[in-house]
UniProtKB/TrEMBL annotation:
SMART domains reported for this sequence: SERPIN
Gene behind this protein: SERPINF1
Ranges of residues in domain Serpin: 62-415
Species of provenance: Cavia porcellus
Alphabetical list of SUPFAM superfamilies matching this protein: Serpins
Signal peptide annotation: 1-19
PANTHER family reported for this sequence: PIGMENT EPITHELIUM-DERIVED FACTOR, SERINE PROTEASE INHIBITOR, SERPIN
Protein name stated in the entry: Serpin family F member 1
Keywords from the UniProt entry: Glycoprotein, Secreted, Signal
Annotated InterPro entries: PEDF_serpin_dom, Serpin_CS, Serpin_dom, Serpin_fam, Serpin_sf, Serpin_sf_1, Serpin_sf_2
Top-level taxonomic group: Eukaryota
Length: 418
């Protein structure tokens, strides 16, 4: 069987450095101008302000995912980094210069020149949460009881993020009910009510919630869904419902450096999912995870080629409810939990004490209304067929095609875990 091999590079147009330093002293290296080599220009895609901002906060998302994956080496990982980034970006409106710089560096804002980041962020949120995208994402800042908040901060928060802060009552039952009601309203009831109590001693609580249920551009035939083996490793297998399409059109490439097969499937609303499938069930996912950046995924999106495949994908429904406090402290944001300066919010010393994240994600056989199970897409230049079976641990990335924004990311070690 012929195999399509794509050479995918990991250079960072927006990142803080390449994987290999050419020389420790810049003076030791000849400049491109002196050698006659062409100077690499920024991809036009990233010259659009909203796309560049999307790349920045997506790189934050990949950083957050890597920390979570290390913390959860034997379990599934599900994150919607956008909702967490939005809460942090909104909080930075109330930070003085030192604290603001800490947040902005984590969000990669220091790598872009945008005098009006928050207005651009508002444009990004409007794009990725448009009704046709099927994404629900919301963030909220919750403050300790009886805190006097400056009206200037509230006005900025409403202007750029269309949200108002919440002040706790001090009654755990009432506060839990109010937060659960807010989540239900924002997610249209798609995420179950929380049973987690609001902890005592909260100064600042950040809450990021998101839900997505994808619709494929070409739906799967439910009659072809059956229980099949999913290889947890080389010795253990479990039975899971696998959706199948013997004549699927996918965009595909084989990354020889990462030793993984990459496939992209389109979703309605200019969304797509990119799958990273290792060649072996026992292969460590770390190399793939370390390569993930906005720029790398953008290049994958450009380089994959349409092919016909015998495709099988586990039917999936995942949820996450928990804290990301420790994860963010690991990302050089520990000063926000110790001695930050949020004097643009209030005159009282306050600090970040907890970050909560709730996410729901699912896909099944459903496709766009009126679509058939046969795609109108045709492979371009390739007439061979290949097998692509997501029947072992894999990583997936849900990406907004219009802006390049990372919306969800997951590590699936066992599709049965919800």
């Amino acid at each position: 069987m012929q195999v399509l091999v794509l050479l995918l590079w990991t250079g960072a147009l927006l990142g803080r450095g390449s994987c290999q330093d050419i020389a420790s002293n810049p003076e030791d290296s000849p400049s491109p101008e002196s050698t006659g080599e062409p100077v690499e220009e920024e991809d036009p895609f990233f010259k659009v302000p909203v796309n560049k901002l999307a790349a920045a906060i997506s790189n934050f998302g990949y950083d957050l995912y890597r920390v979570r994956s290390i913390e959860s080496p034997t379990t599934n990982v599900l994150l919607s980094p956008l909702s967490v980034a939005t809460a942090l970006s909104a909080l930075s409106l109330g930070a003085e210069q030192r604290t603001e710089a800490t947040i902005h560096r984590a969000l990669y804002y220091d790598m872009i020149s945008n005098p009006d980041i928050h207005s651009t962020y508002k444009e990004l949120l409007a794009t990725v949460t448009a009704p046709q995208k099927n994404l629900k994402s919301a963030s909220r800042i919750v403050f300790e009881r009886k805190l006097r908040i400056k009206s200037s901060f509230v006005a900025l928060l409403e202007k750029s993020y269309s949200t108002r802060p919440r002040i706790l009552t001090g009654n755990p039952r009432i506060d839990l009910q109010e937060i659960s009601n807010w989540v239900q309203a924002q997610m249209k009831g798609k995420i179950t009510r929380s049973t987690r109590e609001v902890p005592s001693g909260i100064s600042i609580l950040l809450l990021g919630v998101a839900y997505f249920k994808g619709q494929w551009v070409t739906k799967f035939d439910s009659r072809k869904t059956s229980l099949q083996d999913f290889h947890l490793d080389e010795e253990r297998t479990v039975k899971v419902p696998m959706m199948s399409d013997p004549k699927a059109i996918i965009r595909y490439g084989l990354d020889t450096d990462l030793n993984c097969k990459i496939a992209q499937l389109p979703l309605t609303g200019s969304m797509s999912i990119i799958f990273f499938l290792p060649m072996r069930a026992t292969q460590n996912l770390t190399m793939i995870e370390e390569s993930l950046t906005s720029e790398f995924v953008h290049d994958i999106n450009r380089e994959l080629k349409a092919v016909q495949a015998v495709l099988s994908i586990p039917r999936l429904k995942l949820s996450f409810e928990g804290e990301l406090t420790k994860s963010l402290q690991e990302m050089k944001l520990h000063s926000l939990f110790e001695s930050p300066d949020f004097s643009k919010i209030t005159g009282k010393p306050i600090k970040l004490t907890q970050v909560e994240h709730r996410a729901g994600f699912e896909w099944n056989e459903e496709g766009a209304p009126g679509t058939s199970t046969n795609s109108d897409l045709q492979p371009t230049g390739f007439t061979f067929s290949l097998d692509y079976h997501l029947n072992q641990p894999f990583i997936f990335v849900l990406r907004d095609t219009d802006t390049g924004a990372l919306l969800f990311i997951g590590k699936i070690l066992d599709p049965r875990s919800t």
